[in-house]
Design a protein that fits this description.
Elements (H helix, E strand, L loop, with lengths): L32 H8 L91 H24 L3 H25 L7 H17 L3 H13 L9 H11 L3 H14 L5 H18 L2 H14 L3 H14 L2 H12 L18 H10 L3 H28 L3 H13 L6 H15 L3 H9 L6 H17 L3 H14 L4 H13 L3 H14 L4 H13 L3 H14 L4 H13 L3 H14 L4 H13 L3 H14 L4 H13 L3 H14 L4 H13 L3 H14 L4 H14 L4 H39 L19 E3 L12 E3 L10
Antiparallel strand pairs: 1-2
């Protein structure tokens, strides 16, 4: 305390405070020795200096006003140190506590600006969660969480759950607004949160096809002037009216949205214009649609709009418009880099690793899909307009090919040429199709393989199996991994009955493409011919898993189960066929036969009757039904079936005899006599008819009985002579064959047995011809089994 002195009472403690303080004049600090020395020393060890002005901490530098001259200090010896006093003078108290000083600070004490010697700071006060503002913040967080959960639920496919979350978010947001109003902070309502809740709710209503509710929610947003850019949502409202097929209102809202969006948002305006064009297209207003699409193609061309523009011009029949639109379509830039960047060009392992990583990433898949879509649209439009833009479709195809060759899609020209050949095929002009396809024999391997595959298909249809085999070999040599070419090759070997080799080709086709259904089907047929029924059944069961509800495949499975002796499984599979094709008379007849073999006469009668109802000309079905009613003594019902058989085979006397027999068994002798008399007039030498005429005439006491008896004897004698001639001819032929066998030295002739009958008929070729994927299939069919009356 010896360094602390009190001020004298008559001393002015506040003198000099209104004058300019030269201490804060920093321009001459570099030349101030005392200041530089103070920087190099600690605060407590600075040399003592006396102040020139008593009662202040300012000294050493003469005072100067803003108008006077400033005189630099002679030395720093006169500059007082803060806290220092003159000898014999008391230290005045000043307001420097905020800088870390106290009035009781001792000379030489440590300068503590941060107050670290005061001890730890008091603990922070905890949040008061019961406060209204904290409750509001918690509620806002819950609303945001519900919006996020709603969006995530929709992205995972749970549309109903997303809607429930959106509704709950709306309820909590309304409760939040009410709490704001009650707390008197209505001015601080979060409009962005309200906008998000309403927009999400409207979207979820739309996704759940609750269109009225969605429109009402959008109206709430649009009518609220406090939201920013609500007019854009009129596009969504237009989309809803489009889904409802209310096209006039959709156009109205699209145009309202277009008016409220500035020209700065060019991409948004283009999309709305595209929507307007699509609506006009749906309404059949093609000229208005063309106007919209042409504007888009001038401002921001894209593939979809160009495709729609071609369709509209085709609908109006404008040839020049179609040509112009097609040229605009093929000139649209895709914005896709060259695919060579995905091919390793150096030996740098790191670069190759990067290429391997990106050559199948999302970006590459998007580029590939975009290119495939563009090629599909161009091919479709070319095939569509080619017959319409010129006098003949060949000239139209040639024009399209020339335009494509001059564009960035030059590789599509060959595909268009092949489509030209396919069009010739559809028009049954096989010669032109063959000539067109033969032009590809000297092209690159891919196109050559496709053309040769189609040529093999054509020659196979014409049953020129040698040429079909030749072009199948050519297609295989051009591209050994072409499954269609392998299937065609297998078919040509199949018809030569080399079933083992055919099976090898079909297996190779399946190895190259496991989804080649033609190869799998034909492999099953080949196994059937080789009598490998279990392997054939395995092939067709696999094919049934791929081609659901294919009646041909299920028929093959049923036929195989029948051949394996499992009639119940065969019936079950045929029932599945009936569920797909309920009016197929042959399948119904087959079901009737299987039930008849199982002894279920009532079920057999039902299916045979259904088969007769859909196809009343199947003689086997008619025979079974007539025989059934004869066996059950319902002769009147049998008459209609035998009369139908008489109409189908009028030269066969047996059906007319069966009709007469039914009349006779039912007791209608007069009708039976008339029927026999009609038969006798058509077939006067029929012995059976004459016998029944003699019997009926005798029973009825008719005078014609003697005449019929005489004719009967004559007919029996003629029949006996004919039978003797046939027997003598057979005996002479058998003696000749016996002599020839004795004369031949060990040469034997193979005996050909007739094929086993089944419900699925012989060999049927179903060859599809498409660009790059034409293939041949064999559908085996068997002769229908027939029932005979005893």
């Amino acid at each position: 305390m010896e360094n602390v002195h009190l001020a004298v009472e008559d001393e002015d403690l506040y003198s000099g405070y209104n004058d300019f303080n030269s201490t804060f004049f920093t321009e001459e600090l570099e030349n101030d020795i005392g200041f530089q020395q103070a920087l190099r020393t600690s605060q407590g060890r600075r040399p003592l200096m006396t102040a020139k002005l008593p009662g202040t901490a300012i000294g050493g530098r003469p005072l100067a006003s803003s108008f006077g001259s400033r005189v630099p200090l002679a030395s720093s010896a006169g500059r007082p140190v803060t806290g220092a006093v003159q000898e014999g003078a008391a230290r005045p108290m000043t307001s420097i506590r905020a800088a870390g000083y106290t009035s009781t600070m001792m000379r030489g004490s440590t300068f503590d600006t941060l107050g670290q010697h005061r001890g730890p700071a008091p603990p922070l006060e905890g949040k008061n969660e019961d406060g209204p503002e904290e409750k509001i913040k918690i509620m806002e967080k819950k609303v945001n969480d519900l919006i996020e959960e709603s969006c995530m639920a929709y992205s995972s496919g749970a549309s109903q759950l997303a809607l429930e979350k959106a509704k709950e978010a709306r309820r909590k947001e309304q409760a939040l607004v009410r709490q704001r109003e009650q707390s008197g902070t209505a001015d601080h309502i979060n409009l962005d949160l309200t906008y998000s809740v309403l927009l999400n709710l409207a979207n979820q209503y739309e996704h759940n096809e609750m269109y009225p509710e969605a429109l009402n929610t959008y109206q709430v947003i649009v009518k609220n002037k406090m939201f920013n850019n609500p007019g854009r949502l009129k596009v969504n409202m237009g989309n809803i009216y489009f889904q409802q097929k209310n096209y006039p209102k959709a156009i109205k809202f699209y145009r309202m949205a277009l008016d409220q969006i500035s020209n700065a948002h060019k991409e948004m305006r283009i999309k709305i214009m595209q929507n307007i064009g699509v609506v006009f297209l749906r309404m059949g207003q093609y000229s208005d649609a063309i106007t919209s699409f042409e504007h888009i193609m001038r401002e921001s061309p894209n593939i979809t709009t160009g495709y729609n523009l071609v369709l509209c011009n085709y609908a109006t029949g404008d040839r020049e418009g179609m040509k112009k639109a097609f040229q605009m379509l093929i000139s649209v830039p895709l914005g896709i880099d060259d695919e060579d960047k995905y091919i390793p060009a150096t030996d740098d392992s790191s670069t190759n690793m990067v290429i391997d990583a990106i050559k199948n990433d999302k970006l590459y898949q998007m580029e590939r899909d975009k290119k495939a879509q563009a090629e599909k649209y161009i091919m479709t439009t070319a095939k569509l307009i080619a017959p319409a833009i010129e006098t003949s479709f060949a000239s139209g195809f040639d024009w399209c090919v020339d335009m494509v060759k001059a564009s960035q899609y030059v590789e599509l020209a060959n595909d268009l040429e092949i489509n030209k050949a396919i069009t010739y095929l559809r028009q049954k002009d096989f010669n032109q199709a063959v000539e067109t396809l033969k032009t590809f024999e000297k092209k690159d391997s891919r196109v050559k393989s496709v053309a040769a595959t189609n040529l093999s298909f054509i020659y196979f249809l014409e049953k020129d199996y040698d040429q079909a085999d030749r072009y199948a070999d050519l297609a295989m040599n051009a591209n050994r991994y072409n499954p269609a070419a392998l299937v065609n090759k297998g078919n040509t070997v199949f018809v030569k009955q080399d079933y083992e080799k055919a099976a090898e080709f079909f297996k190779e086709a399946l190895k190259n493409d496991s989804s080649c259904t033609e190869g799998l089907y034909n492999l099953g047929l080949t196994y059937k011919r080789l009598n490998r029924l279990e392997d054939a059944l395995d092939c067709f069961l696999k094919l049934n898993a791929i081609l659901r509800n294919s009646d041909q495949v299920m028929c093959q499975i049923a036929d195989l189960y029948e051949q394996l002796g499992d009639l119940q499984q065969a019936i079950e599979w045929l029932m599945q066929v009936i569920s797909v094709t309920p009016t197929d008379p042959h399948i119904l007849a087959k079901l009737g036969k299987l039930h008849n073999d199982e002894g279920e006469k009532s079920q057999a009668l039902h299916y045979y009757s259904e088969s007769f109802r859909y196809f009343p000309s199947n003689i086997n079905v008619i025979t079974w039904l007539g025989a059934y009613y004869l066996d059950t003594q319902f002769c009147e019902n049998a008459i209609q079936y035998f009369e139908r058989a008489t109409l189908i085979q009028p030269t066969q006397v047996k059906w007319q005899l069966m009709v007469a027999s039914c009349y006779r068994r039912s007791g209608n002798y007069q009708k039976a006599l008339e029927t026999y008399q009609n038969i006798h007039r058509k077939f006067p030498d029929n012995v059976e008819c004459l016998r029944f005429l003699v019997r009926l005439s005798t029973d009825m006491g008719l005078k014609e009985v003697q005449d019929y008896a005489t004719k009967l004897k004559k007919a029996e004698k003629t029949k006996e002579i004919q039978e003797q001639r046939v027997r003598s001819g057979r005996e002479s032929s058998s003696r000749g064959r016996r002599g020839s066998r004795e004369g031949s030295a060990g040469i034997s002739t193979p005996v050909l047995t007739s094929p086993m009958k089944s419900s699925i008929t012989g060999i049927f070729i179903f060859l599809t011809s498409a660009v790059g994927a034409s293939a041949s299939g064999l559908l085996e069919q068997a002769d229908k089994s027939s029932a005979h009356c005893s």
